[in-house]
């Protein structure tokens, strides 16, 4: 019998024999594992596998907060902040799990790894209906999870040191949602360079992030044809601020000013109060529409931070304005921007999110059909969707949200940008800031390059055309 088995294995292709060998070693390893799930090494759970009866538990990474060794004074304060926070909520930090989202991960898969009941996930999704933060998780986002008696007690998303979202189990039922955004400290950097191959390649080589390069090219799309107008040897100058919390860079950046050559003429843009303007105070984007539709529709549910939900009976924030309208009504974008989400949510239904600038975002919920896709550029008044009754609703309507710096505001009453030119006090404040921007740009540019830039601005420059963006 053994000889026949050996002969059969020898006749298998080499790849199958290799896979069979790996499988045999894995089975042997599992058989040798101890059956006690509480086994630890040096006070830490086995980082590879733990056997629990007939199932194999793959533990997530335990955070430093679990260890009994106090962090040294020179380490970053994030772990200490986490411990302080969970203690203030009455949570035993020894139960905390920490995990960093990897490519291909899903919340369902993570819940399955922890053997948490799916109803807990649905309750978290329900609490997330007002924020939709769970739809923004991506590789690199950290999860902090508190599990007690195989039941989720707290789930925290740490997008950065400055931005976190927490879902905490309530005593009666479900989870409550809270969001923290720290202002941090912004440090300004001046980045200058010369076009050799293309703006994107040369700007990234000088230290700009690819996201910043994309933002600059998007802001200047109406002023510059990056394929035709940029010439080899032209200079560019960028003022950019990066955010830090407790000495740690959060990954959040803000482009403050840009000067460069285009079609033999200087082009510049400057950041002021959430939007970008040219040197004469003219907005680079069009005004927002007050309402994202044509016609008049009744407000069926106003903006209310403490609304009593008509379906669940719970008190949850209503971060938007509901307009009663029949399904299939055309919905338009309130302003120029880029579509950042087209998502089907269990409770919010089909929804579209448009990012208009670093400061302004709009959302359109409970749609019947989306007419745009993620990454698509849209203009003010462009039809992007059809209204509907998807998700958890009592009838067809549009839920419309307007967010400023990540925080929801009343779209009906909020002071949103409606002017194309800065005037009055805003113009004076902008002119004062403009002088500071220009002074810092001039100071950062080497004297020889500054002279070349002036000559290029007067004479229009010359030389080869650089590659496209």
Automatic annotation (TrEMBL):
Recorded hits in InterPro entries, A to Z, give: Cell_wall_metabolism_enzyme, Csd3_N2, Dup_hybrid_motif, LysM, LysM_Opacity-associatedA, M23ase_b-sheet_dom
Q: Which cofactor does it need?
A: Zn(2+)
Q: Which residues form the Opacity-associated protein A LysM-like domain?
A: 98-177
Name any GO cellular component annotation: cell envelope
| Sequence ranges assigned to domain Csd3-like second N-terminal in this UniProt record | 184-305
Domain M23ase beta-sheet core: residue ranges: 317-410
**Signal sequence region:** none
Recorded hits in Gene3D superfamilies, A to Z, give: 3.10.450.350, Glucose Permease (Domain IIA) (2.70.70.10)
Q: Does the keyword Nucleotidyltransferase apply?
A: no
Q: Name one GO molecular function term.
A: metal ion binding
Q: Where in the cell is it found?
A: Cell envelope
Keywords, A to Z, come to: Hydrolase, Metal-binding, Metalloprotease, Protease, Zinc
Q: Name one GO biological process term.
A: proteolysis
Name of the protein described by the UniProt record:
Cell wall endopeptidase, family M23/M37
Q: Which organism is it from?
A: Marinobacterium lacunae
């Amino acid at each position: 019998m053994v000889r026949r088995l050996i002969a059969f294995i020898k006749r298998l292709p080499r790849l199958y024999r290799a896979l069979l060998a790996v499988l045999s070693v894995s089975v042997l390893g599992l058989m040798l594992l101890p059956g006690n799930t509480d086994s630890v090494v040096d006070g830490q759970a086995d980082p590879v596998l733990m056997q629990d009866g007939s199932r194999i538990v793959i533990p997530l990474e335990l955070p430093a907060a679990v260890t009994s060794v106090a962090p040294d004074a020179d380490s970053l304060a994030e772990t200490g902040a986490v411990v302080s926070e969970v203690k203030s909520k009455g949570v035993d930090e020894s139960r905390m799990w920490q995990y960093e989202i990897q490519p291909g991960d899903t919340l369902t898969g993570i819940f399955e790894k922890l053997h948490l009941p799916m109803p807990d996930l649905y309750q978290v999704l329900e609490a997330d209906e007002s924020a939709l933060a769970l739809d923004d998780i991506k590789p690199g986002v950290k999860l902090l999870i508190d599990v007690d008696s195989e039941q989720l007690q707290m789930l925290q998303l740490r997008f950065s040191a400055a931005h976190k979202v927490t879902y905490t189990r309530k005593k009666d039922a479900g989870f409550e949602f809270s969001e923290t955004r720290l202002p941090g400290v912004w440090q300004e950097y001046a980045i200058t360079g010369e076009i050799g191959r293309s703006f994107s390649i040369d700007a990234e080589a000088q230290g700009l992030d690819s996201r910043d390069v994309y933002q600059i090219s998007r802001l200047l799309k109406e002023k510059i044809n990056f394929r035709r107008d940029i010439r080899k040897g032209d200079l560019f100058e960028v003022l950019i601020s990066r955010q830090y919390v407790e000495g740690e860079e959060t990954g959040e950046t803000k482009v403050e000013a840009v000067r460069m050559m285009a079609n033999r003429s200087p082009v510049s843009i400057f950041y002021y109060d959430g939007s970008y303007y040219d040197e004469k105070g003219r907005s680079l984007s069009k005004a927002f529409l007050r309402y994202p539709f044509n016609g008049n529709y009744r407000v069926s549910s106003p903006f209310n931070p403490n609304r009593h939900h008509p379906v669940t009976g719970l008190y949850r924030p209503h971060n938007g304005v509901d307009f009663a309208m029949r399904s299939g009504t055309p919905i338009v974008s309130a302003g120029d921007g880029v579509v950042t989400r087209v998502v089907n949510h269990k409770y919010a239904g089909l929804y579209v999110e448009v990012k208009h600038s670093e400061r302004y975002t709009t959302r359109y919920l409970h749609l019947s059909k989306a007419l745009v896709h993620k990454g698509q550029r849209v203009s003010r008044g462009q039809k992007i969707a059809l209204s509907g009754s998807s998700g958890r609703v009592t009838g067809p309507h549009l839920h419309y949200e307007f967010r400023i710096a990540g925080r929801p505001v009343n779209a009906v009453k909020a002071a949103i940008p409606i002017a194309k030119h800065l005037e009055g006090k805003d113009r004076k404040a902008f002119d004062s800031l403009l002088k500071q921007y220009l002074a810092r740009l001039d100071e950062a540019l080497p004297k020889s390059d500054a002279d070349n830039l002036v000559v290029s601005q007067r004479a229009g420059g010359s030389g080869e055309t650089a590659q496209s963006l």
